[in-house]
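Help wanted!
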Amino acid sequence: MTAQWLLVGAVVACTACADLLQSHGMRHGGARWKVPLSIVFLALSFFSFTQLLRIADLSFAVPATAASLVVETLLARLVLGEQVGWKRWGGALLAAAGVALLAL
Amino acid sequence: MRMRALRHAAAVVMLNAAGNFALSVGMKRAPVSAGPFLALLEPAALAGIVLLIAWLLLRLRLLQIADLSFVLPITAMGYILNAAMGAAFLGEHVSLTRWAGAALITGGAALTSLSPADSNPQSGGEAQGGGQ
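Answered by r_m:
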């Protein structure tokens, strides 16, 4: 169980890094190095996902990686300074609740 | 136009589920002796990777003909479809809490898509570029 959540964490962390780099690169400059670096993180994320599928159910692995929605909404607010309205917080909260159910 | 986008979206969701399904089969079929990289060469895993590349390309095409806020909630159905594939074809026991989890995540993605796509026009990007 622990190994599964560690790999979920790796997938989520790498996806969040990739998306932050892409969004920041495309909107605030530095796309020339941020986007290629994001591809590296995407590759790491996909690799972690393949290892997760080795030990976890498909019906667990795919929904569990949706935790990235929650982490990324938080980071979009904190790092990218995006305005996050109640619908987005609500969406992220629903996703978080969904992932929490998987942990039961 | 709308039907075309819907057909496209359905194909995107199914490609994603099929790709993850094949990848899951391949990774579990790979012998334990195969390391993390060699396991990727398992035929089913390779097929999954090819399907997921096709999924990425088709999703790009879909984003070309449809709004992101149209694409997101529909493709979020993939969370439920992936769970269904696991239950139907992989013999996974999908408990009620797992179904509920997948449904909540899809609902969350749908709610998120109701908010405007660019709420911070001062940040640059499309909003400013569009005015030029």
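OP: Thanks! One thing I noticed: Chain A touches chain B at residues 26-28, 47, 50-51, 53-54, 57-63, 66, 69, 73, 80-85, 87-88, 90-102, 104 (CB under 8 Å).
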